[in-house]
Every structure is written in C-alpha cells, then in structure tokens.
Design a protein that fits this description.
With 689 residues, the protein is of the alpha/beta class. The protein is built from 17 helices and 37 strands. The protein folds into 4 domains: 209 residues, FAD/NAD(P)-binding domain, CATH 3.50.50; 182 residues, FAD/NAD(P)-binding domain, CATH 3.50.50; 139 residues, no CATH class; 64 residues, Orthogonal Bundle (Arc Repressor Mutant, subunit A). Strands 1, 2, 3, 4, 5, 6 and 7 form a 7-stranded mixed β-sheet that branches. Strands 9, 10, 11, 12, 13, 14 and 25 form a 7-stranded mixed β-sheet that branches. The protein has a 7-stranded antiparallel β-sheet with strand order 26-29-30-33-32-31-34. Helix 2 runs parallel beside helix 4 and helix 2 packs parallel to helix 9. The radius of gyration is 26 Å and the shape is globular.
Length: 689
C-alpha cells in the first residue's frame, strides 16, 4: 500500500476501510477518499488507454479541470479525482469506446429549485473565505460554493508555514491550520451558507447561476457574483508530456498532503517558482527522493529561502534549463533536460537524462476568469478576488479577499466604511515579488553569549520572527515587512524564532560554555531521517555546500511538528551552518546515456483528443485564425476538459507563427463549464433502481 505512515506535520486518520473493486479485484479505500487517490494508494497509476491511439492515461490535475483520470464506476464514466469511493463500487478502466448501457428509462425532468441570495461567492479558498467573513460581519446573506469536499481551497494542501504579515494573514502558521481557522470564524455567522461538493456550472443570461450541489441541480439568483475560484495550472508541450506520472504540482500536493498517499519514489520538478520549490520540500517530508528541479530563468523566481532549503537538503537545481522530453512505456521512467540560451532555446550537447517516476509541472497558473466573463455578459454585478483576479501568494489572497469583501458590502449599501489608505500599501507589499538579494551575511563578529543567525538574504514580505521574540530583540531593517531581520539585545535560546520561521532560515549559535566548539541549534522537520543524540550529521551552508560531519548533542521537541537539532561545531563553521543534508547526492546523478527527444511535431497539445502540434501547426500555416474552425478541423479543444489545458498552448503556437493574438478568434464558450451526466438534470430512475 502506498500510504504515508510517518509524516512530520500530518497525522494519518483511522478512517473506516471501504471495499471497492478494480477490474474485479477487491481493494480498500478510506471512507470519503477520492477514487483516484484510492487507486494510487493501491498501486494503480494507469487508469485506462485513450480510444484514439491507445496511449496510457493517469491523473494530471487532480482538481476536476481535465478528464485524464476518467474511469468507469458502476457503469458510468466519472472523474476519479472528484468522486468519493462508495462501498463495493465496481471500477474499470476506460479502454477504447465503451458501449452505452442498455437502460430503458424515460427521463422525467424534475422541478429545479431556485434560491436567492445577496452574494454568491464561487470558491471557498483563502480569498473567498476572507471576503465572506467581511460580508458576514455586515449582515449579508451569502452562499459560498466550492466543488471540493474539504473547505479551504489550496490551504488544505499547504503543510508549510506562511510568509507575510502575522497580523494580516497569519504568517508563521501552517496553511492547513489557517484553513481551519477561517472556516471556524465564518461558521459563527448564520447568514452564511457554505456549500461544499457544489460545482458551479454556468452563469446564464437571465442572471441565474446553475450549480450542481451534491448531485442535485439548482439555480441561484444572486445580486452580486464574487469570483474567488482561484487558478488552474499551466501545461507544457513536450514529447511524453501526457505519460502517467507527468502532472501538476497541485495534483501532487493533493495526493501527498490531503490524502497521505505516496505517489512517487523519485520526483523531478519543472519550475522554480514558490509552487515548485514548496512541492519539492513536501516530497522530501513524505520520504520521496527529489532528484532535481529545472528552471528556465537564470535564477528561481520563488523565495530564496525556499530555494536554499532544497539545496541544503541535497536537491540539485538546474537554472537556465528546460525539459526536452519525458520517456517511458506505460508510465514515466525518466526526464531529459537541457540548458537554454538567452532566447530560451535548448543548447545542443547539454542534455541530461535523469531517472524518475514523477515529473511535476509547476510553470505557473492561469486565473479562472470564465465566471466573471459570463456574469459581465449577463449584465450582473460582479467582483473577483485572489488568484482569480491576480496570481499571488495565499497570504496576499487572504488580504485581498478582506478588501474585496468590504467593497462588495459597500456596493450593497451594507456599510459606509472606508477602506484605510494603508491597506492598499499592505496589499502591494504582500503580493510583491522578491526584492533585493544580498550576496553575503551581515558581518557577525560576536563569539560570546547566544544569538540567532538569519540565513535569509532576500527581501520578501515576512515578519513572524519579530512577533515571537520575548525580548523584542529581532527587528526588521525597513519601514515595511520587506526588510531583512537583524538581532540586537537579549537572547535566552528559547528557539521560538527557529520554529516559527516559514523558511527554516534561522539557527542559534551558543558560545555560553566558552569552549572552542559552540552549540548550533538547527530546525528540522523530517521524521524519516531520524536524528538522535550522539549521531554524526553532515551540516551545510546556505548554498548546500558540505561543511563537515558534526556530533548531535541534543534533540529538542520544541513544537509538535518541528524539532531542534543541537550540534557541536568548530568556531570556523558555526555561524555558517544553515541546515543538515538529508539526501545523498548520488540519487540525483544523471544517467550515463542521454535519451534524446522525439520530433517536436509529435508533441501532444490537446490531451483529451490526442492532437499533435503538427496537426495544429499545419492548419495555422494555411491561415486558419478562428479557433472554432481549428477545433472542427483537428478536434483540438473538443474534449472533456473544454480546452482548459490546451487553449493557451495553441495561442502560443499562433504567436510562434507570427500572428497577433488580437487577430485570433477565440473558442466560443458554451454551457457548461464542467461536464455533467444528463441524469443529474432529470429524474433518472436507474439511479433509484
């Protein structure tokens, strides 16, 4: 069983076991578990084969946005990532074109309930919940609809501590705990209805919103629509990009951090933003090997402290590199990367092939805009917030949700409260990209007493360390929270700053015993790599360079999920120690033989209909500028996902061929945004039978 039994942050729940069958073989899932997670937990990674070319299919987004994980459950095609396992459910792969069941049922349209509310919030993530809380404080009737069983959006996948402001967005608190707090706060208001497992299907021209709630279709008539639906992950076109084992970082975090399913043995990551860097850390915590991360830019775009964590734990990071191809028969077996030039074109002869069974695509997000676009067409009042408005960190999304909630309340005449001027400044700071990076530490001359060393050399919005120091000895060297921390004053080695730091970027150096080997305290969150008193560990500097092996003198349990490892080190390295190396560099070594890619024209662009780049490019070169016509000619965008994963790639191909995107006619959007069985709109007697 691919279950994670020992995780530093998460505790395995003792949920009841539910029997189900895969190809007539009995298996067990946890009660309430999504079918995709249950299958992977039972060792099933290939969910079927495509009808067009018999290519293997597995999960990709695990978020209901694509259709790669479709299987047949009790005779019906379903998305396994969005369908909970039922007792004795009969599940089989999609192979070819299955025959429709021979059911003699005369559908009877049932009466559709219509519900009025002042505000409909689409999405119960950090922005949606924060906006809802502000509206609830102003006595507003609200429905918050979310398509997941668990409320909290991406927060329920985030086991790490958040950056940002302690006061404004719970910095220093883990995402999973922030989700619980937001849900608990909003639950106190009777004017708020939270609908989980509720898919918003479309916004119609008569200003009604179709929602499938727990399998029952209804219409909601809001005065205002607030789009807080977040974003969907971008896809990359390269040979082998649809192999099972190639999927989005969000899918990986869903399996590992929500469902405690060990999806992988060796992980490679494409994308050096915060999402990719954090996913790498989550993989290490779940006892997986991270054999590398590639970023096309000269430096990773995510926070340097996230980058530095991976490096010092033994993960190689290849900047100015991109993925060339993924290889494997039925499942991913290796990835080939290459260095790129200033025009981001691969440089011949620089290819490296690295063995892995999982390739995470973390190359950015696209805001989910369709809800507000259709609301605008219908002439409805609407707002957007969080990633649906602008891609930023979750800390920024919470603050933006708060601001937007007040704006909506003002629109409804519920409040005359003015949004404080300093809030705009705070909002800009929280969503700001990393600022200046310093090449070296502030000079630490001290060799007496005890003091913290800050291994964060980049200006980012973060202040938890200053909020926990009992003597206010830690300061931010700036008027805002973007400056670097510094220490001046009293320290008693309480360790609070170590355990609250989201980047694990603080150590304590203790010279109080006066000998030649001061004690260095290091935060540690890896239960699998058991460290005990008397052990020898390899300590590294901020760049992951090995310093030497040192002896552990004490292991402190200062916080439930974070240990403090104390080691004795010589004076010459004590202040340089930034962490403990946990991964043997040998596991990341590229293969001796490089697997060169196939011809780029063979790259699959439309995953659902298996349409190649060549098929699309040939028609683009012939002058087809209407994507609807292109769909008719190639079927690209005609599949179950509704062009959610391929549209941006096709637009990119138009640009590559010299077209101005303003001259391209986009796909016509038609109801519904998400595919729905017809039986959910009718009185399907076969379900009752």
């Amino acid at each position: 069983m691919n279950r994670i039994k020992n995780h530093p942050i998460l505790e395995e729940t003792q949920a009841a076991k539910v029997p189900f069958y895969w190809n007539d073989k009995k298996m067990f899932a946890k009660k309430g578990e999504m079918l995709a997670s249950a299958l992977i937990a039972n060792g099933i990674k290939i969910f079927g084969h495509h009808a067009k070319d018999d290519s293997p299919q597995g999960i990709f987004c695990a978020n209901g946005q694509c259709a790669q994980c479709t299987v047949i459950a009790n005779g019906r095609p379903i998305k396994s990532c969005m369908t909970p396992v039922e007792k004795n459910m009969m599940v089989e792969p999609c192979e070819g074109l299955p025959e429709l069941p021979n059911i003699d049922v005369k559908p009877e349209f049932k009466e559709i309930s219509e519900i009025e509310t002042e505000v409909l919030i689409i999405g119960a993530g950090p922005a949606g919940l924060s906006a809802g809380l502000e509206l609830a404080k102003n006595d507003t009737s609200i429905i918050i609809a979310d398509d997941k069983m668990d409320i909290g959006g991406k927060l329920v996948l985030q086991t790490h501590k958040f950056f940002g402001s302690t006061k404004d967005c719970y910095a220093g608190t883990r995402g999973i705990n922030i989700a619980k707090k937001l849900v608990a706060d909003i639950a106190d208001f009777s004017s708020v209805k939270i609908w989980n497992n509720s898919v918003v299907l479309y916004i119609f021209s008569d200003k009604k919103v179709g929602i499938l709630r727990d399998g029952e279709y209804c219409l909601v008539k809001p005065k205002i629509v607030l789009n807080a639906a977040g974003a969907r992950e971008k896809m990359l076109p390269f040979p082998g990009n649809t192999l099972p084992g190639v999927y989005g970082a969000g899918a990986f975090q869903t399996l590992v951090n929500r469902d405690l399913v060990k999806s992988s043995e060796k992980v490679f990551i494409i994308g050096g933003g915060n999402v990719g860097l954090i996913a790498g850390y989550h993989a290490l915590q779940a006892n997986m090997k991270v054999v590398g991360l590639a970023e096309a830019l000269e430096k990773c775009g995510g926070y340097k402290v996230h980058h530095d964590k991976l490096v010092r734990f033994g993960v190689p990071i290849y900047t100015s590199h991109t993925v060339i191809s993924a290889s494997g028969e039925e499942h991913l077996e290796s990835v080939t990367i290459a260095e790129v030039n200033k025009d981001f074109q691969p440089i011949g002869g620089t290819e490296k092939t690295i063995k892995c069974d999982t390739l995470l695509i973390a190359v950015g997000l696209d805001p989910i805009k369709e809800f507000e676009q259709e609301a605008a067409k219908a002439g409805m009042a609407y707002f957007s917030t969080g990633d649906a408005k602008e891609i930023a960190e979750a800390s920024s999304a919470m603050f933006d949700g708060k601001v937007t909630g007040i704006k909506v309340a003002k629109k409804l005449g519920k409040t005359e409260k003015e949004i404080p001027a300093e809030w705009s400044e705070k909002a800009e700071i929280l969503k700001s990209p990393p600022g200046k990076t310093y090449s070296h530490y502030s000079e630490i001359q001290k060799e007496e007493g005890v003091f913290p060393v800050f291994h964060c050399l980049e200006e980012i919005p973060c202040n938890p360390c200053i909020s926990v120091c009992p003597f206010n000895s830690i300061k931010i060297n700036s008027d805002s929270i973007l400056g670097l921390p510094s220490f001046e004053g009293k320290c008693i080695a309480c360790g609070k700053c170590l355990t609250v730091c989201p980047g694990l970027a603080i150590t304590l150096v203790d010279f109080r015993k006066g000998d030649e080997k001061p004690v260095v305290s290091i935060p540690f969150e890896f239960p699998k790599y058991k460290v005990e008193k008397g052990d020898k560990v390899t300590v590294v500097d901020i760049d992951g360079i090995q310093l030497k092996k040192v002896k552990v003198v004490k292991v402190q349990e200062r916080e439930k999920q974070t240990k403090i490892i104390q080691v004795k080190a010589t004076k010459d390295i004590a202040k340089k120690i930034a962490g403990i190396q946990i991964q043997d560099p040998k596991v990341c070594k590229p293969l001796a033989e490089t697997l060169l890619p196939k011809i780029s024209d063979d790259t699959i662009v439309c995953r659902c209909e298996r349409v190649t780049a060549k098929e699309i490019r040939d028609w683009i070169k012939k002058g087809v500028t209407d994507m609807n016509q292109l769909k008719q000619l190639t079927r690209a965008g005609m599949g179950a996902c509704g062009a959610k994963t391929c549209e941006n790639i096709i637009l990119r191909m138009y640009k590559e061929e010299g077209y101005d995107l303003d001259d391209i006619t986009r796909n016509t959007r038609r109801p519904l945004f998400i595919e729905v069985p017809l039986g959910d709109f009718a009185e399907d007697k076969s379900k009752k039978e």
